[in-house]
Amino acid sequence: MEIQAYNGSMGEWRGDAVLLLLREEDCLTLPSLPGAEAVRLLAERKDFSGKKGSSLRLPLLEGGIKNLYLMGLGKAEACSTAGVRDTLAWGLRMAGRQRNESVLVPLSHLEDAFKDGDPSPSAILGEAAGLCGYVFDKYKEKKEGEYEPFALKEVFVPGLVPEKARQGQIFAAAQVAARALANEPGCAISPAGLAENAAAMAGELGLDCEVWDEKRLEQEGMGALLAVGSGSANPPRLIHLTYKPEGTAKRKIVLVGKGITFDSGGLDIKPSNFMTTMKGDKSGACAVLGVLRGAAELGLDTEVHGLLAAAENMPSGSSYRPDDIVRARNGKTIEIDNTDAEGRLVLADALCLASELKPDAIIDMATLTGACAVALGKWRAGLFTRDNALADALLASSLRRGEPFWRMPAEDEHIEESLKSPFADMVNSGPRYGGAIFATIFLSRFVEKSIPWAHLDIAGVDFMDKEWGVYSRGASGFGVRTCLDYLTR
Ligand code: BES
Ligand code: MN
Ligand code: ZN
Questions:
Q1: Which of 10, 68, 179, 246 would bridge 35 by S-S if both were Cys, CB 3.0 to 4.6 A apart?
Q2: For residues 369 and 391, what is the distance between their CA atoms, to the nearest angstrom?
Q3: What's the rounded mean pLDDT across residues 64-80?
Q4: Atom of ligand 1 minimally distant from the CA of 270
């Protein structure tokens, strides 16, 4: 989709649709925009008053414009940039599905909704435009009459800052790439398939990509990742992507992603209603791939590494078992209490490797615990870190990009106790209560203490049951824009 500045007068614009986002206060005081007169009349008649979530389409406007879309943002005091982004995506999606090829989006009347430090209106528009059209429908028959192809091709914006819009579009494309990969079912993407995808992306963008197969993993002492992958016909992989800026890098960040291409639970098999959507257990790895794509396309001045720990967790005669004791890359032994607590195992080895790269910070992304989803719901993800500066930076990025994270405890002496094993250095799973904190403390044993580290638990938020705002049904790519924002700052 092309986004361009519109420099002509509002009344002279000739295209398919106009999309107007309105706060309640705007409806009676709208400056001279196309449709302003209609908006005032509708507001007086109380037919449209800008309520949050309300929308109205007025077809056949004067001057040959086919559709005017009015979208409510709610009360001005409660209107956030996240609300603007979601509403833009919703309106553009609607316009695109209703056969509009070009749409004019005035934004200047919303300027005071943007605070210092927010992404600019142009950047938000770039994100919304890039995210609104994606649906996972490649395996579905496109039946005539039922299927409306997404028609939107051009978005015109008065006062657009093209450079900012382009940045927003890169953020969106990074997230769409993560969604598209995470949506692929387990039969389509194995750990080796994930590696192929990473290698293809690396080729396209000029990144380094190194893939370790099961033989190499053995030599490298990655016993935890190997154990998790041992039950599957599709062997595990460790994928290492590197983005290096042109000049000398300002800093070095390592991103680590959980890449379980399907999580059946292994021998501690999941009940069937918990097993569906577990193709999404590779979402962390897919998000890391997305962030690397974005980093390269933005040409960031930070060196960024992506480590994807890829395995399929399956029950079979060759599976790892409860009671097994496995050795991670840093030499620590782990007694397996539950084969369904596999994510922390694959991450353990990857976090050891991440620490060896001596970065300025490590961030891991993982659909790690049901407990995190129980605590925070399906729309807010967990941020676990002992580093206050890193927490503040990530929460600021999260707010800027409208991906809510909530800081959770990363230390607890009582939970620490429950990691003890009589036979090994630790167990991989403990009591139900505080399960997400247990997992974090477990991971911390594999991170070099002096390196600032944050763990993002995206279980629950990785998969949307319905279309809303910038999200389509299925994989969300949650966390991609937050991490990318963090890297740009
Ligand atoms: N992949 C799951 C966590 C998950 C749950 C992700 C729901 C997305 C939505 C993880 O591997 C898992 O099975 N965790 C267990 C850990 C337990 C056995 C200690 C869980 O959360 O139940
Ligand atoms: Mn599991
Ligand atoms: Zn899992």
A1: 68
A2: 20
A3: 93
A4: 13
Size of the chain, expressed as the number of residues it contains: 489
Domain segments of the chain as ranges: 2-160, 170-488
CB-based neighbours (< 5 A) of ligand 2, an ion: 263, 340, 342
pLDDT digits (tens, 9 = 90+) for 196-207: 999 999 999 999
Phi/psi-derived region of residue 273, left when phi > 0, alpha when psi is between -120 and 50, beta in every other case: alpha
- The CATH number of 170-488 is 3.40.630.10
State pLDDT tens for residues 316-375.
999 999 999 999 999 999 999 999 999 999 999 999 999 999 999 999 999 999 999 999
For the entire predicted model, the pTM comes to 0.97
Instruction: Supply the residue whose CA is at minimum distance from atom 5 of ligand 1.
Output: 370
* Level-2 CATH architecture, domain 2-160: 3-Layer(aba) Sandwich (3.40)
Q: What residues are annotated to the active site?
A: 270, 344
| 238 pLDDT higher than 80 | yes
Pocket test for ligand 1, best of 365, 368, 442, 463 (most atoms within 8 A of CB): 368
Q: Where are the alpha helices (DSSP H) in 133-247?
A: 162-183, 191-205, 214-219, 223-229
Side chain identity, residue 299 = G
Query: Is residue 10 very low, low, confident or very high in pLDDT (cuts 50, 70, 90)?
Result: confident
